[in-house]
Each structure stands twice: as C-alpha cells, then as structure tokens.
Amino acid sequence: MNDDSSSRIVAGLLDWISAAPAGARLPATRALVAEYEASPVTVQKALRTLSARGLIETRPGVGTFVRAVRTARPLDYSWQTVALRSPQHRLTEPSATMRSATPGAIALHAGYPDRELLPERLIRAALTRAGRSEVAVTRSPVAGLPELQSWFASELAAAMPVGVTPPTANDVIVLPGSQSGLSSTFRALVTAGQPLLIESPTYWGATLAAAQAGVQLVPVSSGPHGPDPDTLARAFEETGARAFYAQPNYANPTGAQWPKARAKEILDVVRAHGAFLIEDDWAHDFGITSDPTPVAAQDDAGHVVYLRSLTKSVSPSLRVAGVIARGPARERILADRSASSMYVSGILQAAALDVVTQPGWGTHLRGLRQQLLARRDLLVDSIRKHAPAAHITAIPHGGLNLWAQLADGVDLPRLVRECEDAGVLIASGSEWFPAEPSGTFVRLNYSGPNPGAFPEAARIIGQVLERLE
Ligand SMILES: Cc1ncc(COP(=O)(O)O)c(C=O)c1O
C-alpha cells in the first residue's frame, strides 16, 4: 500500500461520484481492486478518505453508497438577470397571512378557518363518493360540471326578486378557488394598462392579482357602509375606468356590509358609467348577525360579475369557487380560464357539490353561525378589556375578521414582531391597502385554532402596545 495509489483511487472515485445520483451503490471492493490494480487495504483506505469527507457511506454487509447530502457549492444563476430583465409588475413577498403558525402560537393572522369549523364528516364522505364515481376517471367540461354550475346559479337566483331574470347554469364558470377567478376577471375584463377602481382597504390578494395582470389600481376609500356613491362616480369620470372590484358583504378586512339602499346607489353609479361591478362574495356562508345580500341579485343586465367561493366554508382543500358573468364578459373570462387551467378537477367539483347538497350542510351552517358569534364576541371582549388601545372600528355582522385601529405612529412591524416573540401572530393592516395606508391598523382573525386563548392573546397584544406607545 502506498499513499499515491490511494490518492489515485480517491481521484477516480471522485469523478465517478460526481456523475452518480445520490444513493448510487459504489462498485464492490473486489471490482475496485481489479480496476485500480491495488491491494484491498489501499482500496479501503481510499474509501475511508471519501467517507471522512462525507461523500459516501458504508452499510456493513450491504455495500457503499453515494450520500444523499452533497457538500454545498455556490450556484450561479446570474445569467437569468439578463434573460429576465426587470419585472413588468411589482413583485411582492407572499402575504404574512399565509405563514404557517409555529406550534403553540396563538394564530390570529391567517384567513382560513380552523378544521373544527369545517363540515369534516360531510367532506370525507363526499370525497369517498367522488373517488368511486365516474368523475374520478373523466375530464370535466371547461366551464365546470353542469350540476355544480346549476347549483351556483340557483344559489344566486334564490336571492333575486321576482322582477329580475335569474342567471342560468350556462352563465357560471367553475374555478379552482376565487383567487384565480380574480386574476382571470381582471385580465379579461379590465386588461393590462387599464384602470380598475378598488375599495380601500381591500383584500390583499385582489391587489396582488391586479398588479400581476398589469391593471392600474385606483383606490376608492370605503367605510363601514361601503364607498360613498358620489366619490365612486367621480372616480369613474376622472379615470374612465370600466370596472370596480368590491366586497359588499363582510368585507375582508373590515367586515363592512353595504346597507341595501347604499348597494342600490352603487349599482346605479356602475350602470350609469357602463361599467362592471366585480363582486367578491367570499364570505357568503359566514353571516353572523345578518344575512348576506349579493348586489348581483339586483342585476340581470350583466353589470355585476359575481364570484362565490366555497374554499373557506367547505374546505381549504376542496378549493372550488364559481364566477357568474353574463353576455360577452362570460366568454372573455372563459377564454382566459381555458388558457390558464383548462378545467377544474372533477373530483373536487363533485365532492364540493356533494357537501353543499347534503341535508347536513344547512345544519352545519346554522352551527357555524353560532360558533362564529361566540368567537367574534370573545375576541371583541378580550381586546376591549386587555388591549383598549386597539380600537375595533365596527363589530362585523359576518365574516372572520376584526379590524382594529391603533394610534398613529405605532411601529407596526415592531408590534407584529414583538407579539410573535410573545407567541401571538397578528396581521399588519398595511397589506390591505392598495396604496399608502390611511391609518395604522391590524387585522385579527377569530376563526383560527384554540379560541380559548383569545383573552391571553389580547393580554399580550395590550402589553406590547403599552410598551410601544
Ligand atoms: C376577499 C377574498 N376574496 C378571495 C379570496 C380567495 O379565495 P379562494 O381561497 O377561493 O381562492 C380570499 C381568501 O382569503 C378573500 O379573502
């Protein structure tokens, strides 16, 4: 044995390893002895060297293998800088609301309800049935399963007065969640470079989708009763916009619900400007002390493009929504959908339809209302008692969130960070403003896990606020 021949084997095996997949088995010692014309002792020495470098591992009686963990080396993607050029639209970080909570933290930051608020038994049974049915092995039509289209149409029709012509199943396009419906609607009906009026504050995902679609956002301030119709009319006139995105029922984040008279005035403004109202009815199933009243129920002339999501009320895992649009607008949205996702998984559609057509669905929704009421009131009482510096602007009649205003000058990133350090996740309100925030706000979601910890969470928020003021 000598060092030279051991180094020769190490060099040869390094070449071999660099071309081998992780987990590949090295040739047997006998084969290496023959290949390198070295003694078994020299081969063993070379293998020990490679093992010490963490490149291989020997499993006694089995063999020697390339290790799955490779030594890190810096990768060079700099060529992409030239290939990609500057981004066309603003790139944003993923929303803080989508962060997973660390175990043990009290999560008031997220937007999706805890599983105890979901119809779990109905979901599991529906998935089993869908898995056994034809849809498990067939392609769904581009616009969705006809039965689910009918269900979405009939839900809206049920809210319509006698004089308004209800939508048909054909007016419905099934979506893989309403987020992608927002993207499609903005791309198809507003188009890149054109203005879109949008409530402020509003859902961060809508501003994100609009930015990616290259749409120019024009914020219109909105209060507990929705936007002021005169301000909205002026914004249409000044910008020439032909669309307004809004959440008339239980808006995310404020919980605002437009009174019926206000909704009618706003629809009149939209009609007078030959425009679309893109109505996001994300919280239709989350009424607490009122019922949702879709503005779309007052329209049969195709002015309202209506998005209804089942993602949060059925299951975040059965991500299904519907958009109801009439006339050429529907064809434009459908063309965008078929280009971007072709069709929605039939299993998800069939399972979602199964859940919402079971007799247990109505019972579930009635129970959910009571649970949301108790959770909302507990969080309101806890904040008022332990964190009075967080002023709850209005108690929502539905939805999943409280919107609380803080004194101007409170350092929001620091508040969020220090609350997190103390075990409470809250969402900075800044994400919900399409432009500069008009004040200092936080959004507190009352549908997360462990509502029993709300008083403790409020105590922590109150203590951090006291420190910061
Ligand atoms: C107002 C609003 N619209 C749309 C969505 C997206 O819904 P989906 O999960 O169906 O894509 C959300 C989700 O948080 C939302 O809050």
UniProtKB/TrEMBL annotation:
In alphabetical order, the GO MF annotations are: DNA binding; DNA-binding transcription factor activity; pyridoxal phosphate binding
Which UniProt keywords are given for this protein, alphabetically ordered?
A: DNA-binding, Pyridoxal phosphate, Transcription, Transcription regulation
What region holds the HTH gntR-type domain? 1-69
Q: Which PROSITE patterns match?
A: HTH_GNTR
Keyword Flavoprotein part of the UniProt annotation: no
| SUPFAM superfamilies linked to this entry | PLP-dependent transferases, Winged helix' DNA-binding domain
Q: Which Gene3D superfamilies does the annotation name?
A: Aspartate Aminotransferase, domain 1 (3.90.1150.10), Type I PLP-dependent aspartate aminotransferase-like (Major domain) (3.40.640.10), Winged helix-like DNA-binding domain superfamily/Winged helix DNA-binding domain (1.10.10.10)
* CDD domains in the record: AAT_like (cd00609), WHTH_GntR (cd07377)
Tell me the Pfam families matching this sequence: Aminotran_1_2, GntR
Q: Which InterPro entries match?
A: Aminotransferase_I/II_large (IPR004839), HTH_trans_reg/aminotransferase (IPR051446), PyrdxlP-dep_Trfase (IPR015424), PyrdxlP-dep_Trfase_major (IPR015421), PyrdxlP-dep_Trfase_small (IPR015422), Tscrpt_reg_HTH_GntR (IPR000524), WH-like_DNA-bd_sf (IPR036388), WH_DNA-bd_sf (IPR036390)
Q: Which family does it belong to?
A: In the C-terminal section; belongs to the class-I pyridoxal-phosphate-dependent aminotransferase family.
What name appears for this protein in its UniProt entry? GntR family transcriptional regulator
What lineage is this protein's organism placed in?
Bacteria, Bacillati, Actinomycetota, Actinomycetes, Micrococcales
